[in-house]
Description:
About 30% of the residues lie in helices and about 20% in strands. By secondary structure, the chain is an alpha+beta fold. Among the domains are: about 10-50 and about 100-145, Herpes Virus-1; about 245-375, no CATH class; about 415-500, Immunoglobulins (Immunoglobulin-like, Sandwich); about 505-545 and about 550-595 and about 625-640 and about 660-725, Jelly Rolls. Strands 21-22-34-24-30-31-32-28 form an eight-stranded antiparallel beta sheet. A hairpin with a 4-residue loop joins strand 30 and strand 31 (about 680-685). The longest helix is centred in the middle third of the chain and has 70 residues, at about 265-335. The chain starts with about 30 loop residues before the first strand and ends with a helix. Belongs to the TRIM/RBCC family.
Amino acid sequence: CDGEKSDTVPIKNIERELICPICKELFTHPLILPCQHSVCHKCVKELLMLNYEDSFDAGSESSVPGSPRSRVPSPSMERLDRLVRSGSISSPGWRRGSVTPRVTAIPCPGCQHDIDLGERGISMLFRNFTLESIVERYRQAARAAIAIMCNVCKPPTHQEATKSCMDCKASYCNECFKLHHPWGTPKAQHEYVGPTTNFRPKVLMCPEHEMEKVNMYCEVCRRPVCHLCKLGGSHANHKVTSMSSAYKILKEKLAKSIHYLISKEDQVRTQITELDRLISQTEENGQLAERQANEHFERLFETLQERKSEMLRSIEQSRNRRIDQLKGQVEEYQGMLENSGLVGYAQEVLKETDQSCFVQTAKQLHVRIQKATESLKTFHPSADPCFDEFVLDTSKEETLLKEMCFGGVPDPPLIDWSHSRVYNEASIYWRLSEDHLPTDHHVLEYRNGEDNGVWRATDRVYGSSALVHDLEPDSQYSFRVRSCRNSMFSPYSPEVSFHTPPAPVFNFLFSDKCGFSTERLILNNRRDAVESVAGMAFLLSAERVQTGSYIGLDYIIGDTGISQGRHYWAFKVEPYSYTIKVGVASDTKLAEWFHNPRDTSSPRYDHDSGHDSGSEDACYELSQPFTLITLGMGKVFIPKASSSSSVSNANASSGDSGNRVLPMPQRLGICLDYDAHRVYFYDADTMRCLFERQVDCSGTMFPAFGLMGSGKVQLEEFITAKKLTF
């Protein structure tokens, strides 16, 4: 009943989860893409084929965005198989004998990200047997009245199946099962289940190493791997866990999430009711907006119609008046013709012989004749046939109508906190709502917490980011942004606050000269990222010692030194990193350190014991050139406080005077005060000081990093920007 709750959902209610996003049908042999979305096997092949065909049409007209099936007709499976058999393509996306590179990238229909299937294409994808089993159970539930028949019985004695053998991949009735699986034979040990048409393998095999079972889980790639993948394959430097551990953790997380959702069913129903109310309100408000728009335009139409009628009436009156004037002038000129009244009348008057009578009549007639004669000499129409005074210039009104704003007030943008960076300069990013209308420009405003609420604005910004210069160090800044469309400004975005570092940015890149190990460290071409690879060299180093697997740190320093002032730099350490030490180093001791190597076969040669406690960081020898703290496995290890070091009171744990383990920040910052002989370590996102200590600033100091095992350090773009521009 409606009032009861259950921990299970009827299988008939999950159909929408079993639909392929491409073919819109139930999944058939679904494959798991690297982004964890599933797609039918045949649909993946069609996606690759479409990209393969598009490579021939690179110079042709652009295709319309959308799903692959909406761009061009889907190739038939027969055509695909024919191309594969003929050697035109050895796998979907392969083109032999062509300078065009083979196509291995497809767009994921679920998340719209480009997925690169790599060298082996589809063969590298796992088949989603769990989803396939659920689809099969759904099919059986949907066709409960249709029985699965025995694959061995022959008509007319065809019987319903009662068992399905997972080894033989066939279904049997009771008699046929006994016949084909007799006691005392190996077949009697086969695994059998209830009648089914879904025969999945007993063990999941690695797609890259086809003879190996998957028994581990890569936490970086989030996929099962075999031991060969971990030893020397593409997952050699990744963090992996046992399959049982991953199974237990993921199952517990999923169970907890499902239980949470079920426990929040009332809340979900309330939110659904709220969404239904919003849908109705949206429908009503949309209809109201339509009516209001119609009313506005009707008033405009009425006003235009009135003005149109007035203008047409004025034109008509002016036209009639001018025509009457011109017609009167025509009649007057017609009187001057020989056979017209005036000339004929004058000729008759000339026949008068009585002088007195002639003079009496001819005087007035002569005046009329003189006027007619003068009008012939200076001809002027009595009316102007042009209607220039009625010509309208509506360009201004047309412009106003075209600029008429239908979008109302723009939606406020949102500042993207994760992409924005604030140093002595600030790079602020924001994003607009997904259904926003085009905007003219944006205005970014900012203020210092000490400015008593005075906001300063940037110039107009026509993109989605802005750069603010000359910020005060160690200050709290607030930022907000608004959009403008057709001279209408949106509300301000919610304010976002950032704390500037305590010192100006120090620009440097990694140095590939001083003590850099090309065997175990990989430096990218830009020299802004360094990666430690736990490969063969790591194993050989471990082989040389008999007391444990002690391995030394591989150091790398910055290419620019510090000899005065305060400087700050920030970087990111990948969460999977095993052990990474960060800090500063003195050049007066670096030369001796790198040119007089210690005995790496003894665990006593280096201060680092291989443990992640970080306790050794507080008790360096005076000859030690480095001042470092330890990071690894998603943690920061704060050393014990000593006479030369201290921890900020805000971070001190009550009753904890020893080592402390903190979660690793997304970004770590270091500030070196050369003149005060102190170094500070910060959470670069919140500018919270994690640790500080005294440091011997003799000579030139360099940013220093030590890596052991798998790990990666990436410098911030602000730190490398000025270096990379030269």
